[in-house]
Amino acid sequence: MIERYSTPEMSRIWSDQHRYETWLQVETAVCEVQTERGVIPGEAMQVIRDKADFNIERIQEIEAEVKHDVIAFLTSVAEFVGPESRFIHMGMTSSDLLDTSFALQIMESGEILRDKLAEFHEILGRKAREHVETVMVGRTHGIHAEPITLGLKFAIWTEEIGRHRTRLDRALDNLRFGKISGAVGTYQHLDMEVETATCARLGLQPAPISNQIIQRDRHAEFLAVLGLLGSTIDKIATEIRHLQKTETLELSEPFTKGQKGSSAMPHKKNPITCERMSGMARLLRSYSHTAMENIPLWHERDISHSSVERVIFPDATTLAHYMLLKMIPLIRNIVVYPEHMLRNLNATRGLVYSQEVLLKLVNSGLTREEAYALVQQAAMQVWDSDRQFLEVLQEEPAIREHLSEADLESCFQTEKIVNNAHKILQRLGLEDR
User: Fold this and answer.
1) Catalytic residue at 141?
2) By CB atoms within 10 Å of each CB, which of 27, 264, 331, 420 scores lowest?
3) CA separation (Å) from 39 to 29, 33, 191, 201, 341?
4) 318 and 188 share a domain?
């Protein structure tokens, strides 16, 4: 991950220092269990507790020669522990250590993401309540459709982020597994109880079945959730970018004191954070695809997934965290222009109420086809002139035959939309009933 997009919390989790600390935690936990089972003498275990350590520079030096990171790590630890180091890693394979410690790192990163996702969820819900009555035009195909409220946009985003919270919880639960089952998962050199007891010490569950590794569909699910999260952030950012266009200007990113929008044009206020989010979402989605490519491996295991995971997991979790850190203050401080929303709502001179007129005519006794033809004919006149839709409708004898002036005027109201917006928020649990 490029340094400017890294976050201290994630950087710590995926640092070499913490990775080796986690490896030592797993190896020590196995030794503790084996000591309780009488396999490792208590005196030897005390030496391991007192002396076990590592030196990163020494690990790198050894790895340059042996070309195996776990062996390099164990050799460095052995140099600290001495003869009692023979009990460390006894009966284990490298993936017992790697996959179990990897689960611990993923759990740590997942907790950070869980907290920030909850904060983002809460802020979106707050904005939904705040703007439940802020009326604006809804658009389909980029064209004015019917009135909605800004609160409904935020409510849709709120509920979607809520689904991601559920998905993240489920994905983390499906990754909360370790394995101490040996070279091909048969427990030939370690009893199954060692795995069960070790995982319990580490806050994990034993994988119900493994070969040399924990199966990678679990990991792919986690990165798929992050990819989905990225797509929702992209969705929110894209909407804000559209609504910040000069000719629209209904929402805009906060523009802080001293900020500059363009090196050439001093007037510019660009949606740079949202554009960054849309770009980063493309990268985040790509990690989920790569994780799926890691599922099919040769026989009981190869290492084609290993080098990939050393990149995609630190990067994906860091990137998702960074995106949430940027989106939270953006939404908290987003600039809303209700007067521009009203201006844009009225830009088509009342055409956004055409369906209300259509349905009122149908309720008066016309067929849908008859009513549609009358309303569309009046609407086309408005498109081709500067006239108000209500005015054209009032002058059409075939319409006035069925609807009074009061009937027509009642079609051009937003009270029902606002009332229904409150009901929708209540259904979502964002407002009290």
Assistant:
1) yes
2) 264
3) 14, 9, 11, 18, 74
4) yes
What's the pLDDT band for 264 if we cut at 50, 70, 90?
Answer: confident
- Contact partners, residue 29, CB within 8 Å, separation at least 6: 198, 201, 202
Does the pTM of the predicted model rise above 0.90? yes
pLDDT of residue 5: 79
User: 141, 267, 299, 307: which is the annotated catalytic residue?
Assistant: 141
Q: Indicate the residue type of 206.
A: P
- C-alpha separations of 113 from 18, 175, 330 in Å: 18, 15, 18
CA proximity to 220, closest of 97, 109, 113, 308:
308
Contact 206, 196 (CB under 8 A): yes
Closest CA to 331 of 117, 113, 152, 154: 154
**Cα distance from N-terminal residue to C-terminal residue, the chain:** 46
Least confident of 203-217, 263-277, 384-398: 263-277
Is residue 423 included in any domain, yes or no? no
Contact 318, 11 (CB under 8 A): yes
Query: Are 298 and 375 members of one domain?
Result: no
Over residues 105-149, the pLDDT tens digits come to: 999 999 999 999 999 999 999 999 999 999 999 999 999 999 999
Residues 58 and 123 in one domain: no
Domain shared by 240 and 384, yes or no: no
Model confidence at 78: pLDDT above 90 = yes
Closest CA relative to residue 237, chosen from 356, 128, 163, 324:
324
